[in-house]
Amino acid sequence: MTDQSNPPRAHKGEEATDGSLFERASGAFGFDPFRPAPVPDKLDETAMKRARPAKRVVAPGDVRTEPDTVRASEAVDRKTTPVPVAPVPTVIEGPGTAVRFSGAIHHIDRSRLSERGLIVPEVKNSALLEEFRIVKRQLHAVADERGTAMSRRVLVCSPLPGEGKTFCSVNLALAMANERDSEVLLVDADFAKPSVLSALGLPKAPGLLDALSDPLINAEDLVMGTDIPGLWVLSAGNPTDADSEWLASARTAEVLDRLTMGAPHRMVIFDSPPALAASPAAELAKHVGQALLVARADQTGRSALEDAVDLLGACPDIKLLLNAAHFSPSGRRFGTYYGYEG
Fold first, then answer.
1. What is the pTM of this model?
2. Which domains, ranges and CATH numbers included, belong to the chain?
3. Do the bridges between strand 231-234 and strand 224-226 make them parallel or antiparallel, or are there none, so unpaired?
């Protein structure tokens, strides 16, 4: 070990002190030269480049000028002071901006529905209602999954006349009207042979074609109410000499967007003419997110279905709906559980 019994003495001119081991070591081994250099109290400030103030360019119409009789105490250069511009309010589509229907309420003759083989709202758990419950559930599921306005628009069509597309579209609308937290708008888009109003016993009224041909008419103002809760109807309207051209115009997107604007629980069903018999079906397919292609079990051929699918190809989701089927390979008969024969 190092002998520490005789610690070094302080140098001449230094105050003797016992101090700590570090202090004694500093004096013995000459650590003083390694002390930090003195720091001046104030450093010379280096000149810095500073940005010049930006000049605002003011349009001549955005400034106010004061008259020549301004008092000396108010002699402020106001010619370069722009007039504050009020911010433009942002309108966000939502429940508060929903386009609501407020048309007059019309009575639907229940006996007429029964005579035509349609769903009667007050009759619960019929075989027909059970079948269309299955259909509407699949349509609602797709609309909920995608969450877009297009997905809430459904085109009901058939390849050829007489295959039951109006029967299916009306029944589908009646079934959807039973939903507790939603509403359905049934649009008659068969301009040549409209039949929705006749099926429901509603009076003739202006409709979709009138809104397409006149930009001053809002389609939502032409929607008719019914005494079936949740069911609204828009007629085909007064025919023109250019029905297909109006439907193919840019205004169609604007009109149809207003029918679903801000209403996430509203479904719109279009009863269109047959795809292989008239052109409106192919045009409407561009504005819907789902399509039901009705095929009659004892009538519709495979080639007709394939041609119809090609014409409706603008729609991203096409489903096949088999109508008038009297035989089920699986033995499924809807309604028998509730005492009704399907």
1. 0.70
2. 122-325 (3.40.50.300)
3. antiparallel
